[in-house]
Amino acid sequence: MEIWRAPLDFRRACDEARQRGARVGLVPTMGALHRGHQTLIEEARKHADFIVVSIFVNPTQFGPNEDFARYPRDLEGDAKKCAEAGAHGIFAPAPADMYPPGDETRVHVGATAAGLCGAHRPGHFEGVATVVTKLFALVGPAIALFGRKDYQQLKVIERFTRDLFLPVEVVGVRTVREPDGLAMSSRNAYLSAEARAQALAIPQGLSAAARAFAAGERRAGMLTALARGHVAPVASSIDYVDVADADTLTVLGPEEHTPDRVLLALAVRIGGARLIDNMVLGEDPIPLDTTAAKEGDEERHA
Hints:
Distance between the termini: 56 Å
Number of domains: 2
CATH topology of the largest domain: Rossmann fold
Shape: globular
Number of strands: 9
Largest sheet: 6 strands, parallel
Number of helices: 11
Structural class: alpha/beta
């Protein structure tokens, strides 16, 4: 498996793959890979022939008081995970390669990026849009896969890819969860054992809202209250727990009634880590399906 450091070497490798008749698949990451990233690579193999993974901790998407300096970095371990999942190469540039001296161009984002995380991380999605546009310019015609755990990021990328006529097909892949329901995330590494246990309130809250939605609840305020009720006791702070249009990401007011497909998303801080999660109610599976567990309890107590 090759590792390209220079952007033009990466571009050349992708161009040569297409000249051989291969379709290129790109999995953009910031490293600290886990099973969720490997799932993206495996999914890419279903759509493309030459799979490349970018590993780059992008400085422009971090705010001044965020975790850029301590974000986990392990290229050797990441390379092993990429090889196991079937990637053909890794693009791992230095910041100066992606933002050379004199760099001043940024990709402006609009309404899709304004709410949810965008309201709490000024400049974040401009940084995401800029680095992904650079990656798309280097990779050329390709398919690119992103996890739906970063749902707003996925929608922002879909939007600017259409708006700028970029020759990349963007595919979202369902969130990969631990057996106990917690969404896999590189930032889970920040959690102590106690905080890791507390973080289970996130899938519990999403599941409570999802079960109410499945039973017919459509009041946005009630759905958010169900999710918030689980996370509030364990979170050191809550950025948001919102219901929003699943496509435009327009946040619904508490008195509004939702359609039969709507996004429930949250961002909370637990044990010093900022954790995000979401599900599209009416579309995604419930993170914790308690039906089987209840039936098991009834059998044990019969």
